[in-house]
Amino acid sequence: MALISSIPSIPPILFAIVVVSVLSTKILHILQHIQSLPFVYFVLYSPTLFLPDVLVITVLRLLLQSPETRLQWVLFYLGGALTLLTWFAASTHFGFFLETGSEVQWGASESFLRDPAAMKILFSGIYTVIASGAVIFAISFFVSTRLYSMTGRWLHAVRDRCWESIKEPRSLLPHSQPMNIRRCSFHWLLPTSAIVISLFFLLLTRPAVPYNHLSGAIPLTMLNAFHGQAAGCRPQPRPFPFLDDGESTHFRRPLNWAFGSKPEEEERERPSWLPEDIPPGFHRWEVGSAIHEEKYGVQAIQCAPEVFEHYNAARDPMKVSNLDEEILAPLQDAFKDVDIQHVMLVILESGRKELFPTQPGTPLYDALLDSHEEKDKEDAMDKLAQMTLVSQMLTGEYAVDSLGQPANLSASKWQDPAGPDMGGINVRGALTGSSLTLKSMMMGHCGVQPLPVDLLEEAGLDIYQPCLPQIFELFNRKNASAEEIQEKPFLGYNWKSVFTQSCTDTYDRQNILQERMGFKEKVTKEVIEDVESKHYPPKGEEVNYFGFAEEETYPYLRDLVFGAVENNTRLFLSHLTSSTHHPWGVPENYTKVQYMGKKGSVDHSLMNNYLNTIRYIDDWLGDIMGLLDEAGISNSTLIAIVGDHGQAFGEDAKVTGTFENGHISNFRVPLVFRHPQLPRVHVDANATSLTILPTILDLMIQTKSLKQEDETVASAILPEYQGQSMIRPFKNEREDGMPVWNMALINSGGSMLAITSTTSPFRLIMPLKTEFAFRFTHLGKDPGETQPLQAWTMPRLSSLVMADHGEDAAAWLEEAVKVGHWWVDEQKRVWDYRGR
């Protein structure tokens, strides 16, 4: 207490920190959204936006007095604690903005705070937060004395004009003495009342969206981090939109396609291929199956008894199947020479299609060249042509140098043994279904769409389709005939499923998800640094806050590959890369290349680090392919390669990263099905990773790589998946005109939804929470999304779209919103998710 009394500048400094923090954060908050606000309404309602800030500042000014009595000391400590909290919140706001160009969403932070591994992501920007806090303190220090005395005089003037006459003890007001109290004089009461009534009227009449969100004041907004998840009732089916003629301009939907329209119940029979002891993932095929109620515990609210209905492909109004189509012509005569004994799924962290491989003709490539002076551009083109040599061989898309010549593939340490025009299916136009890694990874492994809630709530729920490891485990329960084994000996081998990555799997319950997907064996950071592990110790340092570089897994992969050969095992190997994750580190002995120039206002060092990790992962893929060649199993291994999501940088957009960022650079991903004995086929399709599992099953059926009993199972479950098979012509729409709608959740999953359709060039970012705005782009005219249309309400956005792009675009927008809302509810239903 003596310390504060002896340093009278402490209360003014604390108060100045409050004022600077609250007002600067509010101004930043408004500036981030001002382009989407109608000017007239913004001017009209702007006074109401600062009312919570004035309230916070006033209350803390009253608390931050030089204390004398015990009560004043208690109030002063309370005010000091709130000041520090406000300072922290403002520093975080500015630090997050400087790192990503976006704003902090305290409502999503609660999920991060409960996850130790996720905390490393938050602390990755700690230096920027500290720097922001230091700037706020410096400004506060210089204005503290004048600001404190000025506000004190204002409060003193208010007191003097309004209170006299009745004796009262010393109040909380600055320099107050025992005083008399009387009513405010009439000439002060009238204008004050007018102002208060006007503000109250504006508060009542202003639209809730977005002005309630813009009004938020720190530290009050931090309360959103502790909202919690309340239990709700079981989600119920809702009718699919466009049931009646004339409601959609693009397609018609028969009434019997509506979920919840109560069609006649068909008598279900237990499939003959389903074992008595049902393996995990296949319980929905059991007659009378249902998800057990006890996993949700006692419900906090009363819900009407409802019967849970599993996902049913025959009643999915958004499903578009191409299984009735013929095999792609180049593949029809190739299958008789193809064996698939092993399957490998490689998920590329932050894998952008524009860099798999690097090619001219994309907004990113142009941005990379624009960072160089004109005289240096040819050298830059030559470097970029040589950056992803392995990717060029895997996709069959080849880069060219500054002279227009193909890249020198001989510089790669791995050389593709496949013949000319061989190598498999390369999909151009693929989009991720989620910019959150683990949700995207689950789509590829299980053929399911993710749950539109923040982070990996799916880890605590039943995945509504069997995942690849579970399918292979069911295959292990079937026996091959002697004739089958004689023709193809590997049909008698058992499957072994292993998940591998060099980073931790504790982030956001990934380890739990892996178990639910059916993986019983794994190699992760925890294994690599375990003193009991075969290949301990690791050879290098950790390259990011998740773990090691990929090369640390090489000896384990080698053991798995050669073990499968020696032990007559069929291997399903899933591998997630991580070096291409922020902060984009590579091993110390890996030579970095300077790909970026110095032109422009953007710091190109981050992009340069990312490009070097892209080259590192490209080399790593060469190591994997070389390992398969060395083991002699390249010609019997199918490899699916897909990006989990992209990665936005300052060269792409103002807002960077994937968190709450719907920019298209976060969604374009590579998708390749590699087999050296398959002809090279390029498919242009607006596909997602939902196609991976159906394509793998379809390929194994067509190549006779399954024993008869397994083929029966695969053929029975294949039509149940929502994705199409990429060995058949990709259908953009159904016979009735229903397009393929692609939904993509934006990290962290529960705030925004990206919507595209295969028959239109339009793209919509639809908010799932009121804190976010609608965003519309025309990818045909603006592939880099540099000129989006934004609005906080659909009527406003619809009028903007109508004016800029015409009636067809506005009609598509209306349909996209309806389908998007239906999809969100339906996903919660099929996942049986009861959070609210």
UniProtKB/TrEMBL annotation:
SUPFAM superfamilies with a match to the protein in the record: Alkaline phosphatase-like
Keyword Transcription regulation: no
UniProt entry keywords in alphabetical sequence: Membrane, Transmembrane, Transmembrane helix
Name of one Pfam family that matches: Sulfatase
Transmembrane annotation, as ranges: 12-34, 40-63, 75-98, 118-143, 186-204
Domain annotation Sulfatase N-terminal: ranges: 540-700
Annotated PANTHER family: SULFATASE, SULFATASE N-TERMINAL DOMAIN-CONTAINING PROTEIN
Name of the molecule in the record: Sulfatase domain protein
Organism: Aspergillus sclerotialis
Lineage, broadest ranks: Eukaryota, Fungi, Dikarya, Ascomycota, Pezizomycotina
